[in-house]
Amino acid sequence: MAIPLKTLATALGTALLAACQSAADQRAAFEQEIRASCEQRGFVPDSDAFRLCLLLETTNARLRNIERRLDILDLELRRDGIGPDCRTCP
């Protein structure tokens, strides 16, 4: 599955900006991005559906972070010879 160029550019831009921002600024930008995403999908602010959209988007972002961390750990284990050495294994 290929990553769309727009998504990749957004992620790269966010990562570059994150290096220059404080934790509070990063959190505020993250929340604003999620709010904008839900509004673009047509959810009405302050409705139950909008709050559910915010919850799902936040949960999905957390899951992406966990998956990224697990991928890094898996690569480190394989590099150090601790993990499986099967090239065709998922």
Helix content: over 70%
Query: Which percent band covers the strand fraction?
Result: under 5%
What is the molecular shape?
elongated
Between the first and last Cα atoms, what is the distance in angstroms?
15 Å
Average pLDDT confidence is: 82
Number of strands: 0
How would you explain this protein's 3D organization?
This protein is mainly α and 90 residues long. The chain has a domain of 56 residues. The longest helix is centred in the last third of the chain and has 32 residues. The radius of gyration is 17 Å and the shape is elongated. It starts with a helix and ends in an 11-residue tail after the last helix. The mean pLDDT is 82.
Blueprint of the fold:
Elements: H1 5-18, H2 23-40, H3 48-79
Helix pairs in contact: 2-3
